[in-house]
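Friendly challenge for the regulars: who can give me the structure tokens for this chain first? No prize, just bragging rights.
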Amino acid sequence: MAINISDYFSEQEISDLTEEANRSDDLEKLTSSALDILKKKKLLDLFVPQQYDGLQCNLPEALPWLEATSWIDGSLGWTLTLASGAGLFGAFMIPEFARSVFSQKNTFIAGSGFPGGKAERTNAGFHINGSWKYASGINHPTLITATCYITTGGKIQQKEGAPVTKAIACYPDEIEIQKTWNSFGLKGTGSHNFAIQGVQIPKKRTFAISPDSVHVDGVLYQYPFEAFAHCTLAISMLGIARRFWDEAKQILLSKHEVTELKGLPESLQTRFKDSHQQFNKAKEAVYKTVEQSWQKLQKSKHLNDDLANKVSVQSRQSCQTALHCVQNLYPLLGMSAINPDSIINRCWRDLHTASQHMFLRPQ
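First reply, four minutes later:
Bragging rights claimed.
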């Protein structure tokens, strides 16, 4: 699926967000101006249920928005991918609580899906303690979600030999941000750790992400969450890689003082075209696999494990292919690519940072 960035963002928006990307890198968090553009376009609501005034987009229709945003600014696109993906949680929250969350305009959810703490059962709900890593956008949320081990009397509960976990929701004044994000890429995501110490939350602020726990109608909320996370993160990374290629092409043309690829030396022209074709094929494979899975889910209302796993595997493979193709071209770009203030250098740093996410690394 070849998308035109201009179909999703105006030239003015692209220009403004490109300028804001540099500021976000310097601030190590997204700027309010960049976030305002996302909010104006309701992109944080891509996966929020319609009954809570969200867009409830079909997954194949939402992916190009993530690619386009990531093409403009990797940190912005990566944060949007995670924050909009968290909007999906509204379908699994108790409706009364979900309505209170999304009744606010521009709800922004950040957090962590990995068990970093414990939720001790009490008569009033749960007593929360723990620390969670790599919470992209943690400087901006209106709500924070975190996965906890459920404990009773300090002992982790077990079900069928596995520890019981639940997602819990907290407000910004109930967490402590720990300034730990010191990456050379995706700097603007501000993916710091956060801690919750001795906070009591009611049961209504807990939820489980599974088809059995959904409170909202819609095919979107029957899509396996792990496959959803794999493909959305992959498309974000591939959007960054696409911008790298666009910038690399202009650098090569400028270095050789030509206006078209056919003016480059034949060996360089072949290397660029072959690698770029390989990258495009890898990106299209993710879109195609997601589309196939979506059509299957629409027909049968269920996606079997094999097809869900195919989405996850293809997402990983395509990201690794993209990274290999970029690394193959990078040595040919010269000094233009090492300037940390250049777009292509930021893409390079963002790509290598994104590639370390556990959902995108080779298994």
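Residues 223-354 form a domain with the Butyryl-CoA Dehydrogenase, subunit A; domain 3 fold (CATH 1.20.140.10). The first strand starts at residue 109 and ends at 122. Your move, everyone else.
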